[in-house]
Amino acid sequence: MRHFNVTGLCTPDKDYMVDISDKIQKIRGMVDMEEYFTINRARQYGKTKAFVSHQHLRKI
Description:
Blueprint: H1 21-32, H2 47-59
């Protein structure tokens, strides 16, 4: 059963999540072009998930 995780990194099979794949693709494009970017958001916005997802894409 999935739930709302407010204490750490979320996993899709256990936690409710928002699809941020479009944002990850934009980040990947910026990194590939050696551009700077920031993620400046409040708590529980997906900052850690975005970086973990980006690291996973770089391995592919």
